[in-house]
Every structure is written in structure tokens, then in C-alpha cells.
Amino acid sequence: MEISDVTRAIAAATSVAALLDLSADDAIVLHNSNKLALRLTPCNVFARVAPVGQEVAQFEVELAQRLTEVGCPMCPLEPRAGPRVYTRDGFAVTLWTYYEPVAPHFSPVDYAKALEQLHAGMRNVDVPSPRFTDRIREAQDVVADPDRSPALAGADRVFLSGRLASLRRAIEERGAVEQLLHGEPHPGNVLSTRNGPLFIDLETCCRGPVEFDLAHVPEPVCEHYPNVDQGLLEECRQLVLAMVAAWRWELRDQFPNGRRFGEEFLSALRGGPPWPTLDTMNKRLGSL
Fold first, then answer.
1. DSSP letters along 147-179, please?
2. HSE of 61 in the Cβ direction (CA atoms, 13 Å)?
């Protein structure tokens, strides 16, 4: 979010907290991109804020409740607030339990076990959800529309469009078993707590093969997840690189240093295998 939007979003979150008699004299920004993550103090509440219409917060709240009930390793909603979406000044606000981060960070084994447990719980929850191909289509729409991605060069547009289409076909032709997925279980959406790894941000949930989720996590985590189709995982890793590249070129994207990420993800796709994982790309870009 832009600085002016951040100020308004913080005011919206603290206003909601005040309504619930939660003391929120200060708000610490934990993450800022298209959505804002805040720690409200001294009440110690984790708030997520997004412009109304640019989120699926109600779906996330309802799904989080159901997954928590079946024992999934999820960050639960804040018990002192109602399980609902609050709207203030054009923003949707949801309130969650805040966990103090612990060190050392969780191990790849713990990460893999938590993801496996999440997937097992998701198989027991029947909710209407998009398919992973809907997310591919969203990326394709960005690439296909020069008004939405004006800085994307013509040759890059053709290359990225072709790669998204060919990977979609290849993955669908495998006919793999599909189930409800987190959608983006990368390290940025996993909390390290005394209760072990806990997942956050369910807005990207979709149905697809588990390898689509695994394509978002570090390589050592995949090594401890059982019964992985390695060929499908490699195709999904390429797909994730292509989708992230598309989103970083979108005109309204507010990811920090998004343009540089878009360029580097395109370069990685052109570079060929072995396909880097998201954490590898983030580390590489962080050192540039």
C-alpha cells in the first residue's frame, strides 16, 4: 500500500479494535504489499487489512474457523473478536491471534509435517473454492492486457503468455488427484511459534494437486513430504515462477521492488532447469 493508504488502513484497524474494547495505542507494520499486516499493541492482536473488493476476507474467516476445528496447524482468529470481517473507511479488517516469533526457526521436517497435516485436514473440509487453473487465468489476463502490464516488453509478453499456457496444459494432462490447497504456503505465510509452524493467509486457497502447494516451499521441505510426483513438482515450480512474474508486472501491483522481481523471475524461466524455488529467488534478489 502507498503511505497514505497505510495511514488510513492503520486507522481503520485501530478503530475496529477500539469498537471491541481492545487497546490499540500503537500499530506495528509487519508486512506491506497489496495487503497490510499489523501487530496492534498493547492488546497484542494480529490484524490484516485490505481495500474492500480486493480481498476474499469472508471466505478466509469461514475457512480458518473450519480448519481450526479439525485440528489444522492454522493461526486462529482472535477470540476476543467476533469471527467476521469488519469494514472501516473502505478497508476490510480481520483480527487474528498474535504469536511472538520463536527462534530457532522451525526445521524443514516440522514445516513438511505441518503442511502434510494441513492438507489432511483440508481433505475433510468441503467448501466451494476456485481451482488452481483460475489463478493461472488471472496471471494470463495480466499478461494479455497491455493496459494492466504496460511495462512488459512485447517479446517478454509473448514468452510469458506461451509458458503459462503450455504449463497449464502439461499439468492438467497429468490428471493428478486434486484437493483443497493453501495456495501459497511459502515461508512468508508460516509463523514460527511455540506450538510449531502455523499457517496464515487463506485468501489464495484453491483446488489442485498437492505439488502446486509444494512448489511454493523450500526444496528441503519437499524432501520430507511423502509421495511427491517429482515431474509434476518441477512443472508446478515453473508455473509458480511464471505466475509470480506476471503479477509483478501488473500496473497496480504494490509488492516492494516488484519490477526487479518481475525481471529476475523472467530471467529464471528463460534460464532453464533446475528451477529455483521461491525462497531461492528471494534470497538471490535480497543479495543484489
1. TTSTTS-HHHHHHHHHHHHHHHHHHHHTT---E
2. 20
What is the tens place of the pLDDT at every residue in 173-217? 999 999 999 999 999 999 999 989 999 999 999 999 999 999 999
Separation of CA 67 from chain center: 17
Q: Burial letters for 145-183: b for 16+ Cβ neighbours within 10 Å, e otherwise?
A: eeebbeebeeebbebbbebbeebbeebeeeebeeebbbb
C-alpha angle 221/130/262, rounded to 5°? 60
pLDDT at 288 (0 to 100): 45
pLDDT digits (tens, 9 = 90+) for 238-251: 999 999 999 999 99
Backbone angles phi, psi at 38, to 5 degrees: -130, 150
Is 202 in contact with 130 (CB distance < 8 Å)? no
Q: What is the DSSP letter of 77?
A: B
